Amino acid sequence: MSEVYMMVTVTNRSRVEKFLSFYKEKQLNVMMVTLGAGTASGDVLDYLGLEVSEKAVIFSVVTDGIWKTVKKGLENQLRIDIPGSGIAFTVPLSSIGGKRELMFLTENQGYEKGEETSLKETTHELLVVIANNGYIETVMDAARTAGAAGGTVIHAKGTGMERAEQFLGVSLASEKEMIFIVTKKEQKNPIMKAIMAQAGMESKAK
Fold it and tell me: What percent of the chain has pLDDT over 70?
């Protein structure tokens, strides 16, 4: 049985291609890349040996086995343990909506299916929705029918989208919206189901 995580990498924009190439070598085929900027104070930057610079944020899904390999490679090959090189961390995922979507996100990672997990001692959970560009309201209208109050949107560029047809039977645009919705734990599954039903792979939002 595999544990599944969302891996988040933050690095300088000048280094993003090196990280993307490294992740593809490690069989991480589907990633979302967005732009960001650091907000740390001068004292914190000095302490960490960092400079004020434009950032790139990379989102991907990893199994526990792949994360162990990736973490070692990040230190040995990309020297992420040296201040100023970037940071990578994982967040446990309790579920992913859709079997085909799960297989698409974990391709070549040796995923072994287990039961849907429940994050212990949590009252709220974060839903991350990935949709084609321009369909924010479609997603949020669906989420609101199940009780979602609102969300936060960032624009991202998807990589590995060309493999979607193999897994999902459809082609996907590379320009994506990532919608982050914080919800009460008991509302998570109804909101996920509403989004999958009204804005899922059979819709234009995909």
Answer: 88
Model pTM above 0.70: yes
Question: What are the strands, taking DSSP E only, across the chain?
Answer: 4-12, 31-37, 54-63, 87-92, 124-132, 152-159, 175-184
The string of pLDDT tens digits covering residues 19-50 is 999 999 998 888 999 988 766 556 666 665 55
Instruction: Classify each residue of 154-189 as buried b or exposed e, where b means 16 or more C-beta atoms within 10 Å of its C-beta.
Output: eebebbbbeebeeebeeebeeebbbbebebeeebbb
- Phi and psi for 51 in degrees, rounded to 5? -115, 150
Spatial distance between the Cα atoms of 122 and 107, rounded to a whole number of angstroms: 29
The token pair at 116 is 């849907």
What residues contact residue 86 under an 8 Å CB cut-off, 6+ apart? 9, 10, 11, 12, 15, 19, 78, 80
